[in-house]
Write a structure and sequence with these properties.
alpha/beta; 7 helices
Length: 224
């Protein structure tokens, strides 16, 4: 024994969607518009933080989108677990262009959904295409894998997290090349990766009513 702390040999990556936001609660297109958490969303984050604290879950670093709803979720968890928090704009939500901040009803009236959306079509006229979002999700995952092996929690948004899963091995859940599979608010997916080459070794998913029950466990199989 040389007295040095043992270095982790794999990546454990947990992807967490933010808690309920005002945009979720009142039916607005959010994208990169900065809606805060509702009181329910803050309670969701606190409940998960307490659960993880009781299970002695630890993260080497928490990485979050700087948008309010994700940042606040991450701050609550980071404070309870005493984990370092880093904001990374690469993990922002899918830019929705002119739809951002608009109610679902108003959006349907002003910008009816086209019968076919190709992968290069800009959402809300000036937003990102799904191809652009897919490439940004790849940069976000690359940024994780460029770090040293360890345990990382990513707190972000449904759109980019769905596509990030494709890079982590869950191509079915990513919905590529079509639309992504929706994630419930505050849902969790876990992946464990060896340093090289990256591949998914385990995973779990939970709905808000069972937050944290399996999120920190290592379950053999593929992401569901």
């Amino acid at each position: 024994m040389n007295g040095q702390a043992e270095q982790p040999e794999e990546y454990q990556i947990i992807l967490l969607r933010h808690g309920e936001s005002e945009g979720n609660a009142f039916g607005y297109y959010q994208g990169q518009a900065d809606f805060p958490l509702t009181s329910t969303g803050r309670e969701q984050a606190s409940a998960l933080a307490e659960r993880w604290a009781s299970e002695r879950v630890r993260f080497d670093r928490i990485i979050a989108s700087p948008l309010l709803r994700a940042r606040a979720t991450a701050e609550i968890i980071a404070a309870r677990l005493e984990a370092p928090l880093e904001l990374d704009p690469t993990w922002k939500e899918w830019a929705n262009g002119r739809l951002e901040g608009m109610s679902m009803v108003e959006a349907r009236e002003k910008y009816p959904r086209p019968a076919f959306i190709n992968p290069y079509m800009h959402i809300g006229e000036s937003g990102e295409s799904i191809t652009e979002l897919y490439l940004r999700a790849g940069r976000a995952v690359q940024g994780l894998i460029d770090r040293s092996p360890g345990s990382y929690l990513v707190v972000a948004h449904g759109g980019i997290l769905n596509l990030a899963q494709g890079y982590l091995g869950d191509h079915a859940a990513s919905g590529l090349p079509g639309s992504a599979l929706p994630l419930p608010q505050h849902s969790i997916r876990q992946a464990e990766l060896p340093p090289s080459p990256p591949r998914v070794a385990a995973g779990s998913r939970e709905r808000p009513t069972a937050l944290g029950r399996q999120a920190a466990q290592r379950l053999r199989g593929r992401l569901r």
